[in-house]
Write a structure and sequence with these properties.
single chain
Length: 269
């Protein structure tokens, strides 16, 4: 009976898709899929969660466009729909991601970045252009920056370290989120014991950045590095602690031993 219901549901979905194409013959398979995802997200909307989300983002002066769906539910839905599209060519799935991102909704963006990360085994150098275009066009806050950079884009840089010079150029951007991305994108690599010397290059470039979200970003990068390389991070902090903003410094030393944290925070006499 359960299998019959599932089969009936699949036939109904296909019938609905065909009907929508009859109504609008210009409607593509890509748009149909994105519309299906958006409708299901809307059906799971939780007004109270939406209120809390807007309040949370508000403290960072951001105004998210959201259905109001909790993250665990988004992840579950993302996995469900990826199972339906994973057999398609990577370029086609990337186009689906672009359609999702263009909606402007937090939830659709989460699905798009999740799908991009699921494709990491199939990355190739030309994909840098796609990922960077998403960073510049669709990242407008800390949540989207960190989601893209600690997963899909971070995995790309880990696989293709020759693009590090491109990443380092981001430190000069006028966009605070692109500068933050230059640090956060290295976290994926440092968690896998790679590219330690490069994170210090990024930290050097962002050392006195006046933006608190950038300060937190490179401080977080150094904190992640301290899990694997506490001595190297401590030495770096001690060398630069008089120049580093206190926000970056506190983030960087958070995982160090109490003795090292006390030494790093000690005022010069």
């Amino acid at each position: 009976m359960r299998n019959q219901k599932r089969a009936s549901g699949s036939l109904l979905d296909e019938w609905c898709n065909r009907l929508r194409r009859k109504v609008d013959p210009n409607l593509t398979d890509t748009q149909v899929t994105v519309q299906e995802i958006s409708r299901e997200l809307e059906s799971q909307a939780d007004p109270e969660w939406k209120r809390k989300l807007i309040q949370w983002y508000g403290q960072y002066h951001e105004e998210p466009k959201s259905h109001g769906v909790p993250t665990p539910s988004i992840r579950k839905l993302s996995a469900k729909y990826f199972s339906k599209v994973k057999g398609r060519p990577k370029g086609e799935i990337f186009r689906l991601c672009e359609e999702l991102l263009a909606s402007g909704y937090v939830e659709e963006r989460t699905v798009a970045f999740d799908w991009a990360f699921r494709l990491r085994k199939f990355y190739e150098p030309l994909d840098f252009r796609v990922l960077e275009s998403w960073l510049k066009k669709y990242v407008h806050g800390w949540g989207s920056c960190d989601d893209l950079c600690t997963h899909a884009f971070g995995a790309f840089v880990f696989q293709y370290p020759e693009f590090f010079l491109n990443v380092k150029e981001w430190t000069k951007s006028e966009d605070r989120w692109i500068r933050r991305a230059s640090a956060v994108v290295m976290i994926y690599s440092i968690r896998r014991k790679k590219h330690l010397e490069r994170i210090f290059e990024i930290a050097d470039a962002l050392l006195t950045d006046p933006d608190i979200m950038v300060q937190k970003g490179y401080g977080w990068m150094l904190k992640e590095a301290s899990n694997r390389y506490p001595k190297e991070v401590f030495d770096y902090v001690m060398k630069h602690r008089m120049e580093m903003p206190r926000t970056s410094l506190r983030y960087a030393i958070e995982k160090l031993s109490p003795e090292l944290r006390k030494e790093a925070m000690r005022e010069e006499t």
